[in-house]
Amino acid sequence: MALTTEEIQNLNRQFKGIPPEEIISWAIKHGKKSVVTTNFRPYEVAILHAVTEVNKDIPVIWCDTGYNTPQTYKHAEELIARLGLNIKLYVPKQTTSHRDAVMGIPQIDDPRHELFTEQVKLEPFRRAMEEHKPDVWFTNLRKGQTAHRDSLDVLSMSKDGVLKVSPFYHWSDTQLDAYLQGHGLPNEHKYFDPTKVLANRECGLHT
Hints:
Residues 35-187 form the Phosphoadenosine phosphosulphate reductase domain. This protein has 207 residues and is of the alpha/beta class. It is built from 8 helices and 6 strands, in the order ααβαβαβααβαββα. The two termini are 20 Å apart.
């Protein structure tokens, strides 16, 4: 979806305080092809529920690093079944066992960390986006998660020219808890991202 910086800024002002379902409906209506990405981290169920309420067939891209906790995998399977998610699974080209044998999980200051992040997260994500070629990308980015995300808004343009839509951008954990409770949705907090090390570090997909 081709929008100028000024148009995005104007829309962001309009969308502040607007219900997520209205933002999602607008984006799907004006875009040609939409996808939603997920890793089933805490509160991801909110964006999955909200988007599939508007379009139940939207492709749900899951880039599974292979390092998720058992709780996350069980949570994912529950949501896939419960919400009827149209899951498109993307995994690294190397198995976790292979990587554990030759590299393990490098620390952030290890020169191999960049290669590790490329293998488990960036390459599968690029492959997914190249195959689906969306012009609208729904995410659950929220203000306050990282310094970089604080510079974004409900609408932002990815470096590849895809309109990134984060309907819950201005929502707090308390507001999301109320959303989940109101819709009877489960949450799961035992999530592990092997590329981040620090909780407030950007994962690499949104920079």
